[in-house]
Amino acid sequence: MDRESKTAASAGADSAGTLSVLVVEDDAAVRRLIATALAMHGYHVEVAATGEAAILEAASHGPDLVLLDLGLPDVDGIAVIKKLRSWSNVPIIVISARIEEADKIEALDTGADDYLTKPFSVEELLARVRAWQRRARMSLGDDPGESVFENGPLRVDYAAGCAYLNGEELHLTPIEYKLLVLMCKNVGKVLTHTYLTHEIWGTSWDSDIASLRVFMATLRKKIERDPSQQKLIQTHVGVGYRMQRL
Fold first, then answer.
1. How far apart are CA 179 and CA 74, in angstroms?
2. Beta pairing, strands 92-96 & 114-117
3. What digits encode the pLDDT tens for the residues 52-108?
4. What PROSITE patterns does the entry give (predicted)?
5. Is 38 exposed, middle or buried (0-12, 13-18, 19+ CB in 10 A)?
6. Angle at alpha carbon of residue 199, lines to 196 and 201, rounded to 5°
């Protein structure tokens, strides 16, 4: 643990057991700003300035959340996401100066769970971290006795946290699975963009709606492989989405 990590961890020492966050950022000033803000709000913080250090830190300490800059000096952040996703489902929030939609789509498709563009406000960053913390707590509190949901070729085992299509297990990202569960538990209802983004990210910024469209598109590719079959999820343009009962 380097000096910044020790300082951050010390600042948040009174909140043992809270979210552990790995901050991956090569800009020392930005890294210090993020680490200090998180520590002041009771989070345990580790930092890394390179992709290789980030992978080692993640493997050694198993953080609950990763904040990842894409423009790292040794390897691109996309490569770090791919490496982490080869063995971990830890939530990853990208923090990047890359504002092109293609960059965001690539990061989300590779396995990132959220994308925050620079410059950003500390308040927005903390709100997104709190949203992930709430989801982690909700996940631990899920009722293991809930039944299995079935709709046509789709089967979702809430207790096991798994989804199947025609008996084949689907490989979903944490966000895709959360979206699917929301749709399944509200089958037949139109869920608005605002409702979905609030449930997924805890906020309703325009950037979240753009991310929602990306994740919904990737989810559909996985659960609606056969074009001859009736669509499971309907789009209500300008409003939201609805899962129909087959």
1. 34
2. parallel
3. 999 999 888 888 899 999 999 999 999 999 988 887 878 899 999 988 888 888 988
4. OMPR_PHOB, RESPONSE_REGULATORY
5. buried
6. 100
Neighbours of 94 (CB within 10 A): 26
Domains in the chain: ranges and CATH: 3-140 (3.40.50.2300), 148-243 (1.10.10.10)
CA angle 73, 111, 166 (to 5 degrees): 160
Question: Burial of 121 by CB count in 10 Å (0-12 exposed, 13-18 middle, 19+ buried)?
Answer: exposed
C-alpha 82/C-alpha 116 separation (Å) is 18
* pLDDT one-digit tens code per residue, 232-245: 999 888 888 999 88
The amino acid that residue 109 corresponds to is D
